[in-house]
């Protein structure tokens, strides 16, 4: 079994925290860095949360703080009604965290690691794509040196999913549409894990209760941070929570659970469809257009729901008790 060296680019974030634990406890993953970005909360908060999670769960890798604003500089109010004012469901957190961030900004950390481990690093990016775009702008050569990029972002219309933050766009892409278009424009091996599959794998309350019962302090933590998140999903009639970011981790460690479609991806900039992600299917022919001369990437179009849920459950329970 090959172990993936992973940089986790994240905006913790409730589902981000759950995915971080999934990475941390996965025997197939060597987590070599966590980079933070604004999104589910402001950058100071997402970085504090990453440092808190590192400390609380003994995650040995460094944390590097990333972008505080998207590339176009627009400042958006974070979604406190989904992730809480503290980004972790408003559970009590310690006043002081002793772990300190790496001295480098996230994009520089990414560049340094990719160059230090050529063709070995997998980037799992589950927030705005700002840090990745900044890294590509500063060091375009890294595109040829990264082993794999898996992003949680986008919605391509499969299973009827087109957007969550708007009817046309998914939050991570909408939050920095320019960065996302640049990341999709890079010639690196990239897979987008979008709402098409993440909204198909809800964790229902009995599942979370079972995890709580079997995964000790880790299960209890997941249970606590998901209370607010669950109420948010219930408020519009969803029977469970979508743990978007863990689907990206699942793709990394068990790609056989997913079906993909290949083709170049563009992101709509501005207007009512701002942040919409549109892939041109490699199997189809169109008139010349905005997708020409762009690299093909994979988009997840289907997932084996039960197998994904089982993989997450088993990984957390085994890791928590190990
Ligand atoms: C994405 O947006 C964030 O709220 C989640 O953490 C996830 O990465 C889902 O649209
Ligand atoms: Ca996220």
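^ Assign residues to that structure.
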């Amino acid at each position: 079994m090959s172990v993936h060296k992973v940089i986790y680019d994240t905006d913790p974030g409730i589902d981000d925290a759950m995915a971080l634990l999934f990475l941390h406890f996965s025997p197939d993953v060597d987590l070599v860095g966590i980079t933070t970005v604004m999104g589910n909360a402001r950058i100071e908060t997402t970085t504090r949360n990453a440092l808190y999670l590192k400390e609380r769960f003994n995650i040995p890798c460094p944390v590097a703080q990333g972008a505080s604003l998207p590339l176009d500089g627009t400042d958006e109010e974070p979604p406190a009604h989904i992730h809480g004012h503290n980004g972790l469901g408003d559970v009590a957190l310690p006043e002081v965290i002793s772990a300190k961030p790496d001295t480098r900004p996230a994009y520089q950390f990414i560049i340094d690691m990719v160059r230090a481990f050529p063709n070995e690093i997998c980037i799992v990016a589950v927030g705005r794509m700002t840090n990745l775009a900044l890294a590509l702008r500063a060091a375009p050569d890294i595109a040829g040196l990264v082993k794999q990029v898996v992003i949680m972002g986008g919605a391509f219309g499969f299973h009827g999913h087109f957007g969550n933050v708007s009817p046309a766009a998914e939050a991570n892409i909408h939050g920095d549409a320019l960065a996302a278009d640049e990341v999709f424009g890079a010639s690196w091996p990239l897979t987008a894990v979008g709402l098409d599959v993440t909204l198909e794998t809800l964790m229902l309350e009995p599942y979370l209760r079972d995890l709580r019962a079997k995964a000790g302090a880790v299960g209890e933590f997941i249970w606590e941070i998901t209370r607010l998140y669950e109420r948010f999903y219930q408020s519009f009639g969803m029977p469970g929570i979508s743990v978007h970011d863990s689907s990206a981790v699942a793709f990394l460690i068990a790609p056989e659970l997913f079906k993909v479609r290949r083709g170049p991806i563009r992101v709509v900039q501005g207007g009512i469809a701002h942040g919409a992600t549109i892939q041109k299917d490699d199997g189809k022919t169109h008139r010349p257009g905005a997708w020409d001369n762009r690299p093909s990437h994979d988009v997840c179009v289907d997932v084996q729901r039960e197998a994904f849920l089982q993989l997450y459950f088993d990984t957390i329970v085994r890791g928590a008790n190990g």
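Residues 13, 15-16, 40, 126-127, 152, 164, 170-172, 244-245 surround beta-D-ribofuranose (ligand 1) (CB under 6 Å).
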